[in-house]
Amino acid sequence: MLKTKIKPAAVKLLDLIYPPRCISCGSSITEHGNICGKCWDDINFISDPQCRICGFPFEMETEATLCAGCIQEEPHFSKARAVFLYDDASSKLITSFKYNDRIENRAPYARWMARAGAEMLHDADYIIPVPIHFGKLLLRKYNQAGLLALGVAKIAGRKVLVNALIRKKYTKKQAGLNRKIRFKNISGAFKVNPKYASILKDKKILLIDDVITTGATADECAKILRKAKVAKVEVLTLAKTLY
Ligand SMILES: [Zn+2]
Ligand SMILES: [Zn+2]
Asked: What domain range is 27 assigned to?
């Protein structure tokens, strides 16, 4: 009787010192590393129907399988999927993860991503995170895409090639720039690490990033990888911005 009481008591004591909080709004919840019911309801999780390639969500059931953007010009990746829309409700989840030291948040994110990208993960030979420039890495101390990639890979039992892509150009912050400038800005920013050239040949790659906006970054990475004879590139992100 006493024994069974000790364990929950210890957990309770820990929760008193470090109570579980919603990783979005900070309200009190029952378990660590989760979001509260209200935030969960507010977040716009992306589901079908959506563009077969880029995952752009369609407002209603339609015969169309591609969005206008993909009809106009198909990206170099064959499929991109995201967990939720990047909007007011989800922005705190992204910014706290990206710019603060809230890396403990990655556990639920990786879980959600593994679910949203289950099919792509099943298919992938390797996972590659979209790299950040070494200079930015020094400032931020970690690459959020790399952390997500490691978390997702652990759940799905896949291997991550952390250094297979190199960011050789220090690009300006893409936020606030229009589509055309984003594509121009990111052009030539990446290269395949020569050490990985033979490993990547004919493989199926799943690229991981935190947010996809115009798809310019993912498209540039996919273009470089396809040039390096990668068979297929798919993309999995936590959030997607509707531009
Ligand atoms: Zn909340
Ligand atoms: Zn599309």
From this structure: 1-32
What SS3 state is found at 94? helix
Closest-approaching ligand to the CA atom of 89: 1
Give the ligand at the shortest distance from the Cα of 66: 2
What pTM does this model have?
0.87
Rounded CA gap, 186 and 140, in Å? Answer: 20
Question: pLDDT of 151-194, one tens digit each?
Answer: 999 999 999 999 999 988 777 666 667 777 878 888 888 999 99
- Indicate whether 204 and 177 sit together in one domain: yes
Q: CB of 62 within 8 A of CB of 52? A: no
* pLDDT value at residue 200: 97
CA of 11 to the centre of ligand 2 (A): 47
Residue 102 Cα to ligand 1 middle (Å): 15
Q: Are residues 83 and 139 in the same domain?
A: yes
219 and 161 in a single domain? The answer is yes
Look at the chain and report how many structural domains it folds into: 2
